[in-house]
Amino acid sequence: MSLDQVCTRFHIALELIGARWSGAVIHMIFKGAHRYADLKAAIPGINDTMLARRLRELEAAGLVERRVLATSPVRVEYHLTEMGQELRPALDQLVDWSHKWIPLPEAAESA
Amino acid sequence: MSLDQVCTRFHIALELIGARWSGAVIHMIFKGAHRYADLKAAIPGINDTMLARRLRELEAAGLVERRVLATSPVRVEYHLTEMGQELRPALDQLVDWSHKWIPLPEAAESA
Questions:
Q1: What is the domain-level CATH number for residue B48?
Q2: What pLDDT score does B106 carry?
Q3: Per the CB < 8 Å rule, is B18 touching A13?
Q4: Chain A residues touching residue B81 (CB < 8 angstroms)
């Protein structure tokens, strides 16, 4: 395998989870938010356009599966595929790293 | 710590390494490419403007240290700080994941 090919795949992976909000969406599905409204509530600042777009992108990339439950009324849930679930160790490491190294935004919330 | 704060820091971390080429630059410094020319040669498709910008951004964020060696002629090297080095487990996991799940770009190189 050439360096080009290694780089290309790593690159695609980073762009996939590095797109604004994508990592947060995946992380919140891990944490048990499976419905659109739960995801929206769990991710501060995301709007409907962006959440819907990210869910479609993650579904197209094979990380997220959209399930339509035959309840009445019909219910839609978002779950991680095996591909999505296997991102967990990398994202967990990244969460730990960010908690150690990224400073809290100063007083932004308490103002 | 509020969910907002957790999300914000994770988010900043993802944007930092998710920016186009940033992850590749960090990964290649890990791999031993410390000089500008080595980095440029190791990352297929990156241009001078982008490599210089990413190095400045990573330096400003505290992940990369720019060392000026008192040789003649003067030599500049890029090294990871402790903050940058501690990203390694997360990036290694992501490389493994991408090799398992991201398909090789078909025949793009062999055309």
A1: 1.10.10.10
A2: 66
A3: no
A4: none
Q: Which domain holds residue B92?
A: 3-101
pLDDT of residue A7: 67
pLDDT for A51 equals 95
- Contact status of B25 with chain A (Cβ, < 8 Å): no
- Residue A80: pLDDT over 90: yes
The continuous run of DSSP H or E covering A89 comes out as helix A88-101
Produce one character per residue of B19-37: b if its CB has 16 or more CB atoms within 10 Å, e if not: bebbbbbbbbbeeebbebe
- Say if B24 falls within a structural domain: yes
Reported ipTM: 0.81
Q: Give the model's pLDDT for residue A27.
A: 87
Residue A16: predicted pLDDT = 81
Nearest CB among B11, B23, B99 relative to A24 is that of B11
H helix or E strand, kind and range, residue A71? none
Maximum C-alpha span of chain B: 52
Query: What are the backbone angles phi and psi of residue A105, rounded to the nearest 5°?
Result: -60, 125
pLDDT, tens digit, 9 for 90 and up, residues B48-92: 999 999 999 999 999 999 999 999 999 999 999 999 999 988 888
A5 found inside a domain: no
Q: Cα B35 vs. chain centroid, distance in angstroms?
A: 13
User: What's the structural domain count of chain A?
Assistant: 1
Q: Is B99 in Cβ contact with A86 (below 8 Å)? A: no
Cβ pair A97:B105 closer than 8 A:
no
Residue A49 covered by a domain = yes
